[in-house]
């Protein structure tokens, strides 16, 4: 084709109402006018997906996952059609497709399906006919023609996967913020927009609570080296580029501070201290599909110990049920659940080569009289669990101490 090919993804907030759909349409048309080939991926309007989930739960508190996918995929089908109509109104040619129509083939793990392959023929044909192609995000189809969805926030994955498959020059993620910030500007007004960030840092930030992009989509972008540009759908300024490597990145020790209030802490007390016990507990959790995050085992006293771990708040109930049974079987004691926790983390590839970052973080928290409940580290992040009421203070103090403020 020779022309520049751009994949543009518009998130739910960017198409939340008629005005915003029209705004998205004129941005897309403006880009088309400059001569690019454009494939657009759209999410459901506003919080449609949440509303559909609520509705399903009113009908059946334990809905079939296959039917859930049938239901949720309708959200994106509405947005692609409306966006196509808005583009037509501007005098440009556009055509909308569902995930199934453009051959986004997935496995059959309903509500969290993985993309196996994408047949891009239909898209390429429409592009050749000079049309703007609009694809429903977040959905695919199995080889048996069952509709699937790719997990919450999955439109990002659709966009990245299409960008990879079509060898796009750019993958733009349009959203309601200007890009990736050094921390949440709602918590710290002095937060700065980051110009360039690595896949690894973004991945770490996403898994630690930054909600701008779906973590899986960044994994895929990293794997296939798809450069991503996260930017505002309401402003012209460029946003944040997510790429493989940032020059001079070693000079920056900490790139961002994140906060996650979405976890609960479960403590199993008086766990017998002998080989195989931890394996038993965590195997049971894994078997029931509960993913565990931080784990801390206390120093053993009198041949028993306490094990604490965190899980996603939404999985706490399920985890508790599993743990109660497991605790009985292994002869452990009381189980405590603490929902009053927050995880505050610092992220930066630079910390690999700078000693003393953890000590500095703990010092900042101590100076602010904030007690640390649990600690965990990766090679580019350090997380502390603190009491929820101190979370924002901790974020601001760390953001300031690591020199991130404007
Ligand atoms: N509409 C879906 C969700 O809310 C997918 C997305 O927005 O990316 O999770
Ligand atoms: Mg969304």
UniProtKB/TrEMBL annotation:
tRNA processing in keyword set: no
GO molecular function, one term: aspartate kinase activity
UniProt record, GO biological process: homoserine biosynthetic process; lysine biosynthetic process via diaminopimelate; threonine biosynthetic process
Gene3D superfamilies: Acetylglutamate kinase-like (3.40.1160.10), VC0802-like (3.30.2130.10)
Binding site for ATP: 9-12, 175-176, 181
Pfam families the UniProt entry points to: AA_kinase, ACT_9
Domain ACT: 266-346
Domain of life: Bacteria
Family matches, as InterPro entries: AceGlu_kinase-like_sf, ACT-like_dom_sf, ACT_Aspartokinase, ACT_dom, AKii-LysC-BS, Asp/Glu/Uridylate_kinase, Asp_kin_monofn, Asp_kinase
TM region positions: none
Pathway assignment: Amino-acid biosynthesis; L-lysine biosynthesis via DAP pathway; (S)-tetrahydrodipicolinate from L-aspartate: step 1/4; Amino-acid biosynthesis; L-threonine biosynthesis; L-threonine from L-aspartate: step 1/5; Amino-acid biosynthesis; L-methionine biosynthesis via de novo pathway; L-homoserine from L-aspartate: step 1/3
Any one GO cellular component localisation term in the record: cytosol
Enzyme class, first EC level, given as a word: transferase
UniProt: substrate binding residues: 49, 76
Protein's UniProt keywords contain Endoplasmic reticulum: no
SUPFAM superfamilies: ACT-like, Carbamate kinase-like
Keywords linked to the UniProt accession: Amino-acid biosynthesis, ATP-binding, Kinase, Lysine biosynthesis, Nucleotide-binding, Transferase
Catalytic activity, as annotated: L-aspartate + ATP = 4-phospho-L-aspartate + ADP
NCBIfam families listed in its UniProt record: asp_kin_monofn, asp_kinases, PRK06635.1-2, PRK06635.1-4
Membership in a protein family: Belongs to the aspartokinase family.
Protein name (Swiss-Prot/TrEMBL): Aspartokinase
């Amino acid at each position: 084709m020779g022309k520049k090919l751009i994949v543009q993804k518009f998130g739910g907030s960017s198409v939340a109402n008629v005005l915003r759909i029209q705004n998205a349409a004129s941005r897309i048309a403006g880009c088309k006018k400059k001569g690019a080939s454009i494939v657009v991926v759209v999410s459901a309007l506003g919080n449609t997906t949440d509303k559909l989930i609520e509705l399903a739960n009113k009908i059946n508190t334990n809905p079939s996952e296959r039917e859930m996918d049938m239901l949720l995929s309708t959200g994106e089908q509405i947005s692609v059609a409306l966006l196509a109509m808005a583009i037509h109104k501007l005098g440009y040619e556009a055509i909308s497709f569902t995930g199934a129509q453009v051959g986004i083939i997935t496995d059959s793990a309903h509500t969290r399906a993985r993309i196996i392959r994408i047949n891009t023929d239909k898209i390429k044909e429409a592009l050749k006919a000079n049309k703007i192609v609009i694809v429903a995000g977040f959905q695919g189809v199995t080889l048996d023609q069952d509709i699937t969805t790719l997990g919450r926030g999955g439109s990002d994955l659709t966009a990245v996967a299409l960008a990879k498959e079509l060898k796009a020059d750019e993958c733009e993620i349009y959203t309601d913020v200007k890009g990736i910030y050094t921390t949440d500007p709602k918590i710290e007004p002095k937060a700065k927009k980051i110009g360039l960030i690595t896949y690894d840092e973004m991945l770490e930030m996403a898994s630690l609570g930054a909600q701008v992009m779906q973590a899986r989509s960044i994994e895929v972008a990293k794997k296939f080296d798809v450069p991503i540009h996260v930017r505002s759908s309401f402003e012209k300024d460029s946003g944040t580029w997510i790429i493989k490597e940032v020059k001079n990145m070693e000079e920056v020790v900490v790139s961002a501070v994140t906060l996650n209030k979405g976890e609960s802490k479960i403590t199993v007390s008086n766990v017998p201290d002998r080989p195989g016990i931890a394996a038993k507990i965590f195997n049971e959790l894994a078997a029931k599909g509960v993913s565990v995050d931080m784990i801390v085992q206390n120093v053993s006293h009198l041949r028993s110990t306490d094990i604490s771990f965190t899980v996603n708040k939404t999985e706490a109930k399920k985890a508790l049920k599993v743990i109660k049974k497991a605790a009985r079987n292994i002869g452990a004691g009381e189980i405590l659940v603490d929902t009053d926790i927050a995880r505050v983390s610092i992220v930066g590839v630079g910390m690999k080569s700078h000693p003393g970052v953890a000590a500095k973080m703990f010092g900042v928290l101590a100076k602010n009289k904030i007690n640390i409940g649990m600690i965990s580290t990766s090679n580019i992040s350090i997380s502390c669990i603190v009491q929820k009421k101190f979370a924002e203070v901790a974020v601001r103090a760390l953001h300031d101490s690591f020199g991130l403020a404007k």
